[in-house]
Amino acid sequence: xxxxxxxxxxxxxxxxxxxxxxxxxxxxxxxxxxxxxxxxxxxxxxxxxxxxxxxxxxxxxxxxxxxxxxxxxxxxxxxxxxxxxxxxxxxxxxxxxxxxxxxxxxxxxxxxxxxxxxxxxxxxxxxxxxxxxxxxxxxxxxxxxxxxxxxxxxxxxxxxxxxxxxxxxxxxxxxxxxxxxxxxxxxxxxxxxxxxxxxxxxxxxxxxxxxxxxxxxxxxxxxxxxxxxxxxxxxxxxxxxxxxxxxxxxxxxxxxxxxxxxxxxxxxxxxxxxxxxxxxxxxxxxxxxxxxxxxxxxxxxxxxxxxxxxxxxxxxxxxxxxxxxxxxxxxxxxxxxxxxxxxxxxxxxxxxxxxxxxxxxx
Length: 362
Description:
The chain is an alpha+beta fold. It has helices at about 15-30, 50-55, 65-70, 70-75, 75-80, 120-140, 155-160, 210, 230-235, 245, 260, 290, 295-300, 310-325, 335, 345-360, and strands spanning about 35-40, 85-95, 110, 145, 165, 175, 180-190, 250-255. The longest helix has 20 residues, at about 120-140. Residues about 1-15 have low confidence and may be disordered.
């Protein structure tokens, strides 16, 4: 634990005190387990509202109505909490120790996004953020608010403004020091801290993330159409997925890591520190047949403490059935046939589609 703040005198320059506090805060954040910290002003991204509005106006947010709600707050972080003077952005790594793309070559197995193979990051990161926030309040007598993907906060643009990295052509944040396998958390505070220099873009002519996308979800570099993104389709989209896209999803049943995994900056990726975020053995490449057999109770038990639990059994099994249809494995027809009369209409539809697809591939 860092020593209590002391040694200040009435003659100590205010700018020195502020810098010393920021240095000590950064040291404590690293001690608490974060890989990096940066600071920006709440109004550091003046074009944010316009970018968000263009995305929503084009309908690229799909069924994510929450993106259109509270647009004033989401597009202007300073309006979320007017008293805030600084935004502290923190990065926590979850770099995998295996190749996330290898499972795509095993069509009878499920591909689950790396971030969802361990403990729910909302819980892990928020506890760590609160620890840092409590330290700051005790040391600086300020007010704080903590956010981890649970409020109308645009973390990625703020993190770029705080110097943690830049939004790459795949629109995710990536860093020359961390690669792109890291979570973001934010602490808004009434304390005035010197902002860091925002990061510039370093993608150059590389377009690996654009070319690998299975569904062509990037209309252009630095632009995403969520309606075609497999992460959106498997997690956010309710009801049946368009048949045009089902066949392109392969065996990806929860999220998609293709654009992240292919990024060359990952050669600098930092090792994940918290073992709670490490992949569970049973979620690295689970058999599709086992997952299709889960009822609601079994689903809840298996995914207790996992972010996967948030989408519920029905949407999850719907995704599994699309993967079964794409597997080219006639032996999986038994699992699909057992679900053609499922009470959930999307599951039943997916089961019928999977059976038809398997018949044509036999």
